[in-house]
Amino acid sequence: MFNSNSSITNSQFQIPDSLINYTLHLADNTLILAQQNSAWCGHGPILEQDIAITNISLDLLGQARNFYQYAAQLINEFKAHSPKERAGGEATEDTLAYLRDNREYKNCLLTEQENGDWAKTILRQFLFSNYQYLLYEKLQYGEDEQLRAIAEKALKEVIYHLKWSSEWVIRLGDGTHESHQRISNAVIELWPYVDELFINADYESALIANNIAVDGGSIKKSWLQGTEEIFSEAMLSVPQNVFSQKGGKQGIHTEQLGYILAEMQFLQRAYPDSVW
Amino acid sequence: MIEVKNISEEDILKILETVADPEVPVLSIIDLGIVRKIEIYNAVQKPPSGSLVVFITPTYTGCPAMDVINMNIRLALLENGFINVEIKTVLSPAWTTDWMTEEGKQKLKAYGIAPPNMKQQVCTPGLFQEEEAVQCPHCTSYHTQMISRFGSTACKALYKCNDCNEPFDYFKCH
């Protein structure tokens, strides 16, 4: 399958497991947030914003597809070298999205949090887009050719998401008493899930030395700075001394993910291999 | 064996010019600038068709038109006798609106969609930036206003003309 243009180099053959897990982690983040945002379709506060949030959902889904396709390619190639694994059938973007269970998903806990009201959805998008912007900015110069290409392509879209969500955070925070109250509540509800974004999972640590994965710690400062800027314009304060929840990157999730997967995977589970 | 006719890149491009963007049907995929490369292998087993590899790149990561475009490329080439066709997607370097041809921009305008501005002015993360001046495709006024950065498809933003009062789509800078 791989030709001379393949993104797999010799050094990466020694770490396929980490690369597969990292690619799945990137894919799961975008798929789960896309799925959550898509629930707003037809329910947005006004038509233009309904279209905006579903457009963002579509962009994230596109990123997820690229990451899953690459992960499937890696898994199949890896299996070909390991006779023990070959029996399991070909992996595809669809098997990875629809046929993995809760504990196999590696998305950050932030992405699976409930939509709540418009303020919570907006804040979740802002916190994540700010992270994704810094992440992709570095990933586009990483050593893995395909991850680099996906990041470079998606970065421009993420800038749209970041602008849009930042402006909404400010609009709500510096808006009416009601909107300020709602986004303040969202900050309290979502802040415990922020730290996890910057704590490297073992598969990330294994790839950082080769400059394939982005070191979460290296973008934390810029992230916090960007968030503080927007928060101060929005008259919101950054919570201090909040207990951090983590585990999503390793497959230990909040109860939310179970509901998301149950809905998203229902058709494939009930009617295996059905297609449009 | 029938003699294999030598196929040139121009022959293939001519066929690909008939493949339209399903969401903006006045544009061909050549106008859109998403065909990156064509590889032709003339010396093949199955005459009269050589085998072909067409490299395309998506405009937006999640563009749902890409699957349809893939299929339409395959069909158009099949109609012209090319059976062994492979379509590969490349992501890098990322597509920008500068890849769109001048002819494509004119066609967009005639269709009622404001073509992307040359200079990519507001593709930076700065907030509440002054929006770029976009020309109304109906009355050519620059006295226009953005309604929403996200429009009917991933590649378009929603605008309104303050002079002729018509709403219109702007193929946004990207």
Describe the structure in your own words.
The complex is a heterodimer of chains A (276) and B (174). Helices cover 64% and strands 0% of the residues of chain A. In chain A, helix 2 packs across helix 9 and helix 6 (118-139) packs across helix 10. Chain A is mainly alpha-helical and 276 residues long. Chain A has 11 helices and no strands. Chain A has a single domain (15-270), classed as Ferritin, core subunit, four-helix bundle (Ferritin). By secondary structure, chain B is an alpha/beta fold. Chain B folds into 2 domains: 9-89, GMP Synthetase, Chain A, domain 3, CATH 3.30.300; 99-171, no CATH class. The N and C termini of chain B lie far apart (49 Å). Chain A binds chain B through residues 48-49, 51-52, 55-56, 58-63, 65-66, 133, 145-146, 148-150, 152-157, 159-160, 162-164, 166-167, 170, and chain B through 58, 60-64, 90-96, 123-128, 147-152, 154, 158, 174.
What distinguishing features does this structure have?
heterodimer, A: 276 residues, mainly alpha, Ferritin, B: alpha/beta, GMP Synthetase, Chain A, domain 3, 2 domains, four-stranded mixed sheet, 7 strands, 21% helix
State the major sheet of chain A.
none
Q: State the fourth-level CATH superfamily of the largest domain in chain B.
A: Fe-S cluster assembly (FSCA)
Largest sheet of chain B: 4 strands, mixed
Q: Span from first to last CA of chain A?
A: 27 Å
> How many DSSP E strands of chain A?
0
Overall structural domain count of chain B: 2
Order of helices and strands of chain A: HHHHHHHHHHH
Question: Given the C-alpha coordinates, what overall shape of chain A results?
Answer: globular
Q: Output the CATH class name of chain A.
A: Mainly Alpha
User: For the residues shown, what is the average pLDDT of chain A?
Assistant: 92
Q: Name the biggest interface.
A: A-B, 34 and 28 residues
Low-pLDDT residue intervals, each spanning 5 or more residues of chain A: 1-12
Helix content of chain B: 10-25%
H/E element sequence of chain B:
HHEEHEHEEEE
